[in-house]
Every structure is written in C-alpha cells, then in structure tokens.
Amino acid sequence: MRHKVKWWCSLSLVQHRTTVVFILFSLFPTLLGVYTQEHDFNMPHQEVELWARKIGNHIFHLSNAFALYNDIKDNFRTGEATLQENDGLQLVKEMTSDVTNMMKFKVDAVNRIMNVAEEASLDKYKQEEPVDYYNAKRLNPSPDIPQEAIDDKNYRNLSLLSNIHFDGIPINESVSSVHVPTNVYAKAPDVINAIRWSGRLDRTFKSNYELDPTLSWQYFGSSTGFLRQYPASEWVMDEKDPDLYDARLRSWYIQAASSPKDMVILLDVSGSMTGLRKEIAIHVVLNILETLNENDFVNIFNFSTETTELVSCFNDSLVQANMENIGEFKKALKTIETKEIANFSKALIKAFELLQRYNKSGQGSQCNQAIMLVTDGAPDNYEKIFSTYNWPHFQVRVFTYLIGREEKKKRDLSWMACANKGYFVQVTTLAEVREQVLRYIPVMARPMVMYQEDHHHIWTGVYADVADPKQIEWLWEVREGKRQRDRTENYQKLQKIVKDSSSPAIIDALRDKWQVENFLRYGEFSLSSRSIARIKAAKMRKMRGRRGAPGLKEGYRLMTSVAVPVFDRKKTSNITERVLVNESVWVLRKREMKTANLLGVAGTDVPIREIEKLVPPYKLGVNGYSFMVNSNGYVIYHPDLRPVFQDILKPNYNSVDFAEVELTDYENEARANDSELLEMAGWRDYYSKLRKDLVEQNAAERMMSVKIHLDDMKRVVQRKQKYFAQKISGTPFSLGIAMPEGYGKYKVHGQIELTREIQDHRAGDVMNHFSTGNWTLHPDWVYCEYKYDQHQEDQSPEALINEFLSRAQKPNWKWRSTRTRPPPDPIMNQAQHKRWKPSMGSDERRDNYYCDKDLVQSLLFDARATNVYSRKVKIEDKIKDRNPVAIYIMLLSTSSQNFGITTAFVATRSGLTRWIDNPSESSSSNGNSKEPHFMKVHNRAIDEVWYKRAVDYYKEDQDAYVYSVPFDAATRDPDEVLVTATRAIFVEENDYRMAPAAVVGVTIKHRKFVDFFKNETYKCPSYPSRNSSCKKAKTCESKSLNCYLLDDNGFIIASENEDDTGKFFGTLEGTIMESLVQSEVYKKIQIFDYQAVCLDTQEKNSMASILTTPIQTLKWFASWVMGNVFWVLVKTQLYTLWDPNEAWAYAQGQWDPNAAPTDEVTYSKGPINYQSAFGEYQEMLPDEAVITDESSGEGSGKDPEEDGSGREGSGEEEIPLYEGILEYEVQDYLDGIPTEDTKHPELPDDIGDFPSLELAYINKTHPRPCDKTVYLYKLQSKKLKQDGLYKPVKGKLSNCHTNGCGRPFSVQKVISTNLILVAVNSLCPCESRKVDIEPVEVEHNETTSCNRLLMQHYRKRPQSCVNYHPDEHEIKLCGGAGSLGPSSVALLTLLLAHIYNSMMQS
C-alpha cells in the first residue's frame, strides 16, 4: 500500500488531470442516464386521450342500457308531457295566501283562549275546594300498573294514545295537563287558584282543535309559573334530572308579556361586592339577559369609581339582544373583578344619557326603556339625577336589585324604583334569583293591562322545541364533562397497568407517546389513524340516520309560536303586606289597592314543517326553494339554515340573518355582500334591496347571481336565481321563493286525469303503473293525508297513496284539494257557522282528508312513464335498436358480470323513486350487508344531491352521467362502497324552453369500477390486452405514472390506491391541483360560512385533590357526595360557583354516583403482541371488549392532536365526543396514516412517576360563533375543448426539486361524464403542498371583530308598542324584601331528597 501511494504521488500533474477526467467520464453515462430518465420521460398524452375516450364510451353505454334512459325519455315524450311557464309572482301569491289563512286560524285560536281565560279568572271559588287537574309529571298512562301502587306518589291514571300529528307523542285529546316547575311552590294559594280557574280552558282547547286540525300544542302560561298544555301528555324527563322548565322564560311568553325595550344594566363591581354577593349579582344579570329577545336592545356597564362597558366592543351603544350578543355578555361576566368604591352618580348619568340619545335618534326599540341597578347598597337616593333626567315624563323605568340581607340598605334603593315606575327586590340567596328577576316583567306590562282592549298578538322567531333553548352552554358543559370523565377513567386504568406490570412490551408501549394518548382517549392501545377514522365515520352515519326523521332539522323540531297576553279584568286586588310597627315588630295587613295584573300568556306552536307543507317543493322544481324571513331580517326557515353543531344547537342558531345564507357571486371578502342583497354605506348603516323588501314586507321580484354549496360544503354551484317575495298578512313574516334562471323558468306538465283513467276500462287498475321494480315516495311530501284520524301507526307515504288511490276508484270520490280556507267570519249567523264547521263524528273524520290533485296525477303520469323496470328483461331487449358500439359493450359487459352495476333507478319531479336490482350483483352484496339499501336511504328525489347535480350538469353536457362516491369511502367496507352515476332527462321544445322531468342512474360496485379502470389504463389502447408488447412505462401500471379519475369538484373517484377513494385530490397532489387551477382546468371559488362555530380552549383546573387521595374509600365517598351536590347545582345554573374537574365532569351525562371504579381495560392487537404482553389482565376483559386487529402492520398513527383523532371513550357511544367530528375530517385521518418506520417521540427512561397527572386533563373547549372560509373547486369543461373536441391538457411542474427535475402531467376529459383522467409523472421527488377544503376561521382583528358584532342590518320594529298609561301612577306596588321563600325551600328539599334516595338505593 505504501508503495502504491508513492507511485500515485510520483505522477505528474498531467497524469493527475488525465486520471480525474477519466474517472468523471466513466461515471457520466450513469449520471446522464438518471437525468435523462427523469427529464426526458415522454408523457403518454395520446394514450391518456384514448383511455379517457374508451372509459367514457364504455360506462356511458352501459349506464344508458341498464338505466333504460332512452325508454324512459321516450315515454315522457310520447306521453305528451308539455312545458308550462313558471309564473313566480303568481306562485308566491298563492302560497302566501295559504300560509296567511293558516296563520289566521292560529291567531283566532289564541284569542279564544285569551277571552275564556280572562272570563274564568273572574269566577269566585272557595279556597277549601279541591283542585282537580292532571299533573304532567304525575301521569300513569299504563293500565297495567294498579292505582294503589302509585297512590303514594300522587299519580293519576290517564289513557294516552300515540298521535302522528304530535310527533308520535302519546296524548289525550279530552283534557289538558299542568306542568309546575321545580322552582315554583305548587301549593301556593295564587298557584292553586290559577290552576283552578284555568281548568275551564279545556273546552276551548278541544273546540279549537276541532275547528283547525293543523293546530299543534295549545297552552296557557300563568304568571305564577305553571303551564297548562293541550292535549294532555306526560312530561318526559330523565328521572335523575330536576325539571326546571319555566314557561315565563320562553320567548313566546316574554315577547307577549311586554313591548320591546331598551335596557341598561348597571352592575356594581366595587370592593364590597365580593364572594357570594358577587356570584348572586352575576346570576341576577344572567337571568335578566334570559328575559330578553331579539326585539330588545341592551348593554351592561360595570361601575365602581369609573363606569365602563362590560364588553369593550359595545362602547357607548345598545346592541340587539340576540343570542350571539348575549353570549358575549355571558362570557365577559366570567372575568369581572371587584375593586374600589362605587360611584352611583356617574353610572346613572351614563345610563340616562345613553338611553336618551337612542330615544331621540330613532335607534333601538323606540318603546320601553329601563335601568336595572344591581348592587349591595347605595349611599343616597340620587333624587337630583332622577329629577334632571327622568322627571316628569318618566320615560325610563328603574328596577333595583339589592344583594344581601341588610335591611338598612333597602330604603334608598326602594325609593329609586318606586319613584321611577319600577320595582325593588332584595335577593339574598342564589336559589331565589330567577323568581325575583321575573317580577319586573308584570311591571313592564302594566300599561297594556290597563288599556285592557289592546291585546296585541306576537310571533316569535324560530326556535327549537327543547326544554330550554338557552341552555346551550350547559349542554356543552355536559359534553365536555363526559369527555373528562372518560379520560379520567382511562387514566385510572393506565395507572393500574403501570403499577401492576413490569412486562417489557408494556414498558415499550408506555414509552410511545401516541400509544399512551390513544389509550387515554379510546381506552385501547395500537389504534391506527384508519381505525379512528372508521369509528368516527360510522358514528356520523348513525347520526345522519337519527336526524332523518320527518320534520326534523338535524335532530331538532323547529317552530315559531303565536301568543297573546291575558289580562286581569279586575282593577283592584286585596294585598297582604308586611308593615313595620316599630323597630322590632312586623305585622301583616290586608288592604285593597289599585292593580294591573298580568294573568299570563296564551299561545300555540306552529311547526315549521306545517308551513313548508303549504309551499310544496314540487311546484318550485329541482334546485328551487322557499324561505321565510321576519322583521329583523332573521331566517325562519331556509335550506341553508344549519342550526346544529355536533348534535347541540349553535349559540346563534335563531338569529341567522338572510344575508348570511344567500351568498352572492361577487363576494370576495367576509361580510361584503352584493348590492342586490345589501347596499353597504358603513359598518352600522345598511340599506338593502332584496333584504329590505323582505323586512318591509314588500312584494319583490329580483335577480341575483349566487354561490350555493352542497354536500356539507364540499361542492359548489354558481347560478343566477330569480327571487319572488310576498308578505304574510297579520304576521311579521315575508315568504320568498327562489328559482334557477334557465330551466327554472319552466316546469313539466304531465298528468293522468284519474277520473278518465277509471272510466277507461282498457286502462285497468291505476296501481298497475307501479307494477315493475321497487318504488318509494318522497318521505316529507304530502300526497294525501287524513286531517283527524291520526291515532294509528305512522303510515308511510306509499301506504297512504295506495289507500287513497283505492278509494279514488270508488263512486263519489272527491279530491278535497283545498289546503286551507279562511277562518269563519265573525258576522256569520249560527246556521252559516254550522255549515262552515266540520262535523266530528267518526265517519265524518274519516272523510276529512286532503289530497293534492296536481301532485297525485303527476305521480301517476310519472309512474306510467317509468314503468319499465321488469325483472325479466332480456339482453336482446336491451340491445335492440342500439348502435354497434353499444351492442358490443353490452355483450362484453354481460360476460363479465355487468361491470359491477348493482341497481338501476329513476327519480322524478313528483317525488317518485323506483329501482330494480341486478340479481347477479345484488345477491352477493346487499343480502349480507348491514347497511340499508341505497335507494331506501336516498329516496328524496329532487332533494337528493345526485339529482340536483345531474340537472345542473345538463347545461355542461347533455349526454353526461354525473359520478360520485362517498367522501368517507376509504373508511367503509370496500365491498359496500358504491359509485353513483346519474343523468338528467329534460323535456325540451327548443334550446331555450326546457325543464327537467326525471333523473336516471345506476349504482356500481366501486371495487369492480376500479378494476375496470385499471384494466383499461394498464394496457396500451392500440392493443386488446395487457399482455402485449406495449411499453409498460407508457401505462398506469408503471411506477413512473400515477393515474386518477377526478370528478367535477376535484374528488377522487378511482385510482390505483384504494385508500384514495373519496379524498380531495389536493390533499394528495396539492401542487398539481394548483397547476390545474392555473391551467384553468378547475376554477377556485371562495365560500364563506357565516354560521360556523369555533372552539376556544379553556383553562384547565387541577384535579390533584381527587386523583391523589391516599384513602380510596374516602375518595369515592367524596366523589359520591360531590356528584349529588353538583347534580343540583348544575341544573339550577349554579355550577359556576364550584369547578373542580372531576366534580364538574361527574355532574354531567349519565354518571352514576353509586358506581365503583372499574378496572376493565380494552386492548387491540397491533405490531406488538400486546394481547400476550397483557396476559395477566385477560380475566378483567369484559365480554363486550373491543379487540381489533385491523390495525396490524399499520403502526400506531401520528400524534392524535395533529391528525384530529380526538374522540373520547371506547367508541361505543352514538354521539361523537370531540370537536370537529365532521365527515370531511375523515380525510385528515387517512392522509396521516404513517409508515412502519415512523419515529415517535419517547417518554423519559424513568417511568416511575408515570403517568403524570397532566395526562388526565382534556383540552376543555367552549363553542363560539365565528366566520369561516374555504376554497372549493369546479371543473371548467369548456376550457378542455378545442374545435369542439376534448383535447389533453399538457403541463409540467418545472424545477420543483433541487436537482432541477420536473413533473409532467396530462389531463383529459372523460367523454359523457363529469370526470377527468389525470396522469402524473411520479419519478421526480417534488415536494407537494397539501391543498384541502377544510374551512378555516376568518381572522378578524379587534376592530373588524367588534364591527361584526355591532353591525345592525336594516330592521322593522314591531308595530305594537304600549309603554304608557296616564293612570299608572295610581299603582303603588313597587316591591319589597325578598326572603327564603318556597322556591328556595323547594330547591333545598330537592337536594336533600336526591341525596337521601341515593343513600337508600346504595
């Protein structure tokens, strides 16, 4: 070696250079070869074009043949289907007339309840007379339970029958039932007296229901707290939960009980307001906020030395009391701090000046004005300030709330209230806060009561029929508590594993950070991202099924209510008052005083579904829709109203503005809408066009270009729409309809006249038109229905139409197609009224029905036109009169089991869906499938997304089938994933006069569809098979090419990797997706979501006190006691006083305070044999333990926080328990599937102190309204055409790697489809950005965020305002001291009784 070195060193310089050059030249060919392979790779553009053409031809002819497209289209044409022009203005007038008539019936009904109630209240009863009523919480509907067995609980037997009209709830139409809230003493004399006289309302309730069978629940809410409701029903509640429903806090009661108001709340935050006083004061303010509605305006000021706005954004202003603004106040109340000395003068002057400015400027409610002063005492009565700002007109009422028990501080605060037409109360305990706050409402109602004759009726905004729609925050606390409890239990299991085992496999698992996190969330080790995604996707499908009941909007029943106040006609009352005789002696004295008492409010509900019945969707056609807006511009119903987030109502679900659901096509930044919808002249000053017409209830006809999102905001459509609107008389509502420009101008008219069909003996039974295939009707449409006979099992639309068509073929058939009629005229004589009033005998009830003649006869026409799906169709029939190419494809596919087609179907304009299954495919899949049949789930005809997309795409390509797959396809069983292909059938007169009549389609097994895709793209088009001399480098089979079929919105329909199915292409090839946008293959469209919900993370609280207790028995005893205490505190809205995590968590959900801790552990098999490693725990595994082995070989997944896999619990709950569990997020889990060599961060070597307490915490969240934005994509088919033919788009990512290589790609439109074929070179290792379609929050700075809250669109004030009566000063009742009354006793008794019952059960 030494010799060789010397030899090398002895070479001359020339020899050195020669040797180096020789070595470089010897290596160059290899380097050059690599570079050439990467850079000179010729993309098979011609092959891609031929593949796309062949794929398109094949699937087009197959789909056409199996769906019998031509046969059905010919039947519509030969059946003489014609086109009629849609007169939108006339249509909306007819619909508005029907809705107006229906609303008048509701108003008349509540007026009758009001009149009878006021008369009944004058009746005199003896106090000792027993009161006979049905307590809704003490009903025994089961005759199997003997009366003596329930006598000790004061139950009463009452027969209840399920009724379809009342959502299947068991009811009794003969009587009403009474509900008394827990915080109301049921045996108080005033409560008993009101229950007694209100019993006379039963006859009125029954009479109303006989006159109007569409009436929903009728009720009378008493000012004493109880609710009388008809028909009688059992009050359903969880036996573990207290019932705190109070009718006086419902929007219908509050709005009817007083006119709109401007309110300033002054909250004393001086140094003396600490501890319990501070908490009571905060709860007073919270309860005041709950009594406000969208017609009120409010602000809250903290005052000590200075007076400042509680919410800094609301500086020097009054804001509308909608749920979003109320939420801002509630959030800010959690942060108040007490300090310094209270300056009452500054606070009162600030309040008066603000109210005066609003009164003079025309802002706010322009009706009642009030100051609510919450303090623990005032040093003076500040008479000078009141005389300066409020006397002599007394424009502002003053209500004072004294916090604490000090009697000496009452005088000045009582004087302030009495001298300013207000009311004074003293609040000494948290339990009495609600009852004391509610005392101000009857005072505000005094002017109305004194006028007597002015009974203005009100209509509420939309709200959900739940126990308390304002308990959204509490429901979220329940959700978070469930998450915390699950994690705590898993943490305890993990502690036991660490303590009891020294297995090396366990130690290795515990060192894996992500394995530990998965265990804490799911109770299982070795869960892969795919496993988590599948769990969540399955739960989302269950949730969608649960929400799909008729009339439900994402699981909730939405409604509006009409209500009217009920006045006491007596002008004086005997008042018992406490009088202080001397410093220590109080006496009770009775005296007669002038009063103006509000007895309560009468009302009835109007379900939104009942309104929608009067606006039949079939008259508007596909992609047409109706909507309703109130005088505030808020949506009552709209197809884009999305009130629910993770199964809980959104914080602002009932204050969604019309401008937030109609997204104009010119919008390029958040809340910058088009001038056709809104004309913006500043942040606070809006002048509108269409929206103003709706608010003002003007007749409107306008055109707008809009963006409409579909499929959970994953697809987008741009179109022009024509809007028509009319007012609904007697209400603050406007009804509008929107119809697409173009095909929406016309509708298909084709009907079978039933009378002629019956008379034609050659026609036979009309049901013969439904003889072939399976069929179903739109589940939400009304074809025919009985108005009264509803105590029967819920009949399907198919069963009802069969019954009515059978009746229609008998003599004396009448259509009865008039949906509504005007209420009876008050001037009718008795004979006229008798003829008008329907008979209520059993036979007459059977004949009191409704049938939509146009819809039923259109249905018969469509049934005849689509009656083609015979189970005995021969292949010869399918290829008859087809061209040679179609015949060849049909024969070829028949020999290969029909290419995977499982079902052929058709859906029509009349709501009919019919289908036939392919026996060769269906028998092997659907028979063993756990999923319901595709057509039984997607049976909503024109409301299905595939129907809408097919009709919209017809303009792009009349021959095209529109393909789609489920977005979560990769998480499903591959054998159950279906490709859906649909094509629209139009009736056309020329290029401009056309309308959709139906959509045909097929479902295809995705696995076979992909096999076909591979078979075609893995061979050269010029050769018949893949076993040819074709270069593999030129096909998709080579590793140098990645091939995809994408739909018109960029989602992957087929690829070489099964896991890609349903994903957005940008998540895999973001850089290529951006290039496709630059090449104008796709158009990028920005969508804003103004109904979004964002989750803020809250601070964690220590759990050390409950997790590290050394004595296990004491720990669980303490948890048991605290669980019971918090059970009551949470339900009474007092939970904010006390917030350790476990007590907070165990107060939520289905926590059983008597349950012992469990040691059950659930494991899953993975790369490490955990099953054998944890062998010592096998005896602890329950029978239902989940042991999965699907994750074998996949690794443990990436950080759950990063990939979004944040679901708590074992995976067996029906409701997802982690934020953001939306369908699109399944893609994130799949995108993050790691490889086996993924490196995970490790825990410290010393695990003696593991697991740390921090691991037991959840990231506690809180929902808030926010704006989000997302970019969606739309295929530009016209850009792919050259000279009328589709040509490949050739592109290349140049210099996308450090070695200078690039990635060429080829794009070709697949003919007669909405698909493109994309082939991408995969040799160059370019870095690809991820482009997803997950909405992200719009980041507002502090200024724009405040402006968003302060933005006040144009609104119309309620017409009725009664805020003054000249004789009101004669009423001297203005409040007194509060004490621990029956409400407090009831709550304390409730707590003690619950703990006692728990002890007895244990």
UniProtKB/TrEMBL annotation:
It holds the Pfam family VGCC_alpha2. One of its GO terms (cellular component) is voltage-gated calcium channel complex. Residues 814-842, 1188-1212 are annotated as: Disordered. It is found in: Membrane. The keyword Iron does not apply. Residues 262-441 form the VWFA domain. Keywords: Calcium, Calcium channel, Calcium transport, Disulfide bond, Glycoprotein, Ion channel, Ion transport, Membrane, Metal-binding, Signal, Transmembrane, Transmembrane helix, Transport, Voltage-gated channel. It is a single-pass type I membrane protein. InterPro entries: Ca_channel_alpha-2/delta, VDCC_a2/dsu, VWA_N, VWF_A, vWFA_dom_sf. GO terms for molecular function: metal ion binding; voltage-gated calcium channel activity. Residues 1196-1210 have a biased composition (Basic and acidic residues). PROSITE patterns: VWFA (PS50234). This is VWFA domain-containing protein. CDD domains: vWA_VGCC_like (cd01463).
